[in-house]
Amino acid sequence: MNVPITQSREWQNLQIDLNETSFFESKDEYQYLAIKKNTPVGSYLYLPYGPVAKDKSTLKKALSSLEELGKNEHALFIRIEPQIKDFLSIKPKSAKKTKDLSPKETWQLDLTGSEEDLKAKLPSRLLRYYKNHEKNGIIVETSKNLKDIHYLLNLQKALASKKGISTFSEKYLETELKQDFATLYLVKHTNEETKKTEVVAAGLVFDDKTTRYNLQGAQNDTGRSLHATGILTIRLILDAYEKGLKTFDFWGIAPEGAPKNHPWAGFTNFKKTFAGYEVDYAGTYDIVLSPAKYKLYKILRKARSLV
Hey, what domains does the chain have and what are their CATH numbers? Predict the structure, then answer.
């Protein structure tokens, strides 16, 4: 049973630090972490990439347990994202497809085997940039200093304004970095003429027992000209290999057939230059417990998006 970090006890500790109410249940055949979210209409339970189960039959047990929990908590609905794609064949009648929150498709890289095997899967062009990055005035550092999170935030805000995507708050990112599973990477460049050093790219990764998740990252225009994200990604992968992890999860790609102007199109093209493989999940579904209030919730959400 493969348990993603977002359904772990460690992720619940993050929710506690964020002052979120959550519910954790772990059995031999299934596991879930449900986070309580409040709306003007009422509350719902959200399971990022959960529940987790061994197979379809045990997934049914997890869903039954969740429905009981949801009723006890007077939840409007339970928002699930099971990674078992066969979920569709046992989908409850009350389950409604909704907009995917966690990526439905992702790109992963197998880290098992020799270092030579791994490097053969990496783009030769990026390996060359990585090999020469120090000669070009670039260094890559790791940090657990909460004050350094503003480097990532500022880069993300600049990117968000161009791509029309949202960012997390500085407090949220700081709370993530506090967790044992999180590491911040900073790519710094020193200009030969001015001797000034700036952070041109940054990334925040999460590690569990088997997988490194590349969740947060951004670079500025200088970083783009220096191939900073490519250099950083090679370092992230090599460090994960040295740590003995088995998988590198690039965390999300655009769906097959997505238009060229899809917000993730550029990210997807970059990630697929690595000789990995695509992983597809079931997507995000709402198990409706209160049909009338759920309908009202959807109306309010649509009105808010229009505004």
Answer: 5-102+282-306 (3.40.630), 105-280 (3.40.630.30)
